[in-house]
Design a protein that fits this description.
It contains seven helices and 14 strands. The protein is an alpha/beta fold. The strands form two sheets. It has an eight-stranded mixed beta sheet with strand order 6-5-4-3-2-1-13-14. A six-stranded mixed beta sheet has the order 7-8-9-10-11-12, with helices on one face. The longest helix is centred in the C-terminal third of the chain and has 12 residues. The chain is globular. The termini are far apart.
Length: 340
């Protein structure tokens, strides 16, 4: 299918949309799919063959998954701090704001085994949240029990078509964006960018809302890219061209096996390295692994393969922030990092 990002303007010069703006959206975003979804027969066969969970003998790796919770770092003006809470959930300090990405603090989410590692940041340790960005509406990225912990006045930045869902749950400051659109909060710019994925929460709402990633830009400092969920494609090259000088790229590396089911929607570790190069980013921080066992690769394999691919590409070790859950890093200038 045609990559719909090809007909979208890739420029950061677009004027930001007003926060909280209400807009009319199409009933379906299925035309944005980059390949057809697997049919029911394929999914049922995968379940019967038990290929969507790690082999039982590999579960002995779970206690070896990296978990090292630490205090949230202090981020001064012009400094970006990232803390991995697990899966696709990050605590970001940028431009004086504290931002959560795809916050999932629940132990269990629907139709998924319980998380195998604890949340890296206790909820009570979080400062006031200035904004939440959501990549798409799958349960492991949009968690109702976690959102209920937030004040309903918390700004939510969500994909097109997801605003009414948030408003029905009492949130009063909801901004929906299409690909290549932006808004601003507290001087920080939030751009919504394409991803190769899809959306669904029920049997009747497939692709009723959009999916994508986010680029956060502090005009006085660093720039960060949060990929959300995505398969590999030319979106990374286009994002890198539209947003030069990405300092930190948060890229998924897990939930990739079996490839016949997941190649179109999840990158594997080797593709993550290629995506990093396409983006032209200074630093990569991997995510979307070591939290929920969503697919059939062994629990430790994503990190092992990522490090091997990183070395094979001849990339500097200092540019790979392979954080443990609960770990943090800071950067205060393009291409420079400071260990907390």
């Amino acid at each position: 299918m045609t990559d719909q990002s090809e007909r979208m303007p890739a420029t950061t010069a677009t004027a930001p949309r007003p926060p909280g703006e209400r807009r009319n959206w199409p009933k379906s975003f299925a035309d944005r799919l980059t390949e057809p979804r697997p049919g029911l027969r394929t999914v049922v066969r995968a379940v019967r063959e038990c290929v969507i969970r790690p082999p039982a003998h590999t579960l002995r790796q779970v206690p070896l998954l990296p978990v090292e919770p630490g205090p949230l770092p202090v981020a001064g003006p012009g400094t970006l701090a990232v803390t991995w809470a697990g899966h696709a959930s990050w605590v970001l300090r940028i431009g004086g704001l504290t931002v959560l990405t795809d916050p999932v603090w629940s132990r269990r989410i629907p139709a998924t085994p319980a998380r195998v590692t604890p949340v890296g940041v206790p909820w009570e340790d979080l400062p006031r949240i200035d904004a939440v960005v959501i990549s798409h509406n799958h349960y492991d990225h949009l968690d109702v029990p976690t959102l209920r912990r937030l004040p309903r006045s918390t700004p939510l930045l969500v994909p097109a078509g997801l605003g009414n869902w948030c408003r029905r749950r009492g949130f009063s400051r909801v901004t929906e964006l299409d690909w290549w659109e932006a808004t601003e909060i507290g001087g920080v710019r939030f751009d919504f960018v394409p991803a190769h994925h899809w959306s669904r929460r029920t049997l009747t709402d497939t692709c009723r809302s959009l999916w994508g990633g986010w680029v956060l830009t502090d005009p006085a400092g660093p720039r960060l890219y949060f990929a959300g969920d995505t398969g590999y494609g030319d979106c990374f090259t286009r994002i890198g061209r539209a947003f030069p000088g990405i300092d930190v790229a948060l890229l998924p590396i897990g939930a990739y096996a079996p490839r016949r089911l997941l190649k179109g929607v999840h990158i594997d570790p080797e593709e993550a390295v290629t995506a990093f190069l396409d983006l032209g980013a200074a630093v990569m921080a991997p995510m979307h692994w070591a939290t929920f066992l969503l697919s059939s690769e062994p629990p430790l394999e994503p990190l092992t393969r990522l490090r091997a691919a990183w070395d094979a590409a001849g990339l500097p070790r200092a540019s790979l922030w392979d954080l443990p859950i609960g770990g943090s890093r800071l950067t205060d200038a393009p291409g420079r990092s400071v260990t907390p």
